[in-house]
Amino acid sequence: MDAVRKKPLWIVGGSQGIGKYLRESLDADYELHSFSRREGFDFAEEGVVRELLVDRGTPFAWIHCPGSFLEVPLLETSAQDWEELLRSNLWSFLNAAKTILPAMGDEGGGRVLTFGAAALGQRRAKLRGPAYFAVKEALLSVVQSLAKEWAPRGVLLNLISPGLIAHEHSARESQERMRSKVPLGRLGNPSDLLGLVRLLLSPQGSYLVGQELVVDGGLSL
What we know:
Blueprint: E1 8-12, H1 17-26, E2 31-35, H2 46-56, E3 61-64, H3 79-106, E4 110-115, H4 130-150, E5 155-162, H5 172-178, H6 191-201, E6 212-215
Parallel strand pairs: 1-2, 1-3, 3-4, 4-5, 5-6
Helix pairs in contact: 2-3, 3-4
């Protein structure tokens, strides 16, 4: 008897950090495809995504992990800094969504997860990485708008906002400065996100749409 075919899962930004951990953790459960800009797959380019859909087919789920971080005062953020933040955190998601969401809708639905940052929902000034948080705020708005538009076609979009998640490419010096503000008293790690990711990909997560789900050890309280 043939084995049950695994559902195809795309992880963008799967070569490092949270994306790498999710790729390694979910590989056994899905037909997993991992892409990253360093490997020549720039999802900010719509043509790249169109070619991948033709070659690989439409995924059941798309987890989008790219997102460069910058911690400098707002008026010291250069035009080049803004362009990199926007390209990695926003354009790469939005441009890919133009192609992937219609394909998912044609297949009857799908799951989309991307990543924000803890404290997005707090309407207060952000002096730590203000440009980064501004771009993540824009991403959250985009996700919520697309979630409402595409839910009727079965495409479920949600955003996970991690707190201080330590990994080999995280801004460790900045995270250590903030550690004392975490009620749990420790930095998080990528495994702290895995249970939520599994839920959002599962049948039990089929009524979660357009949500910002915060995983931060209480940092934003």
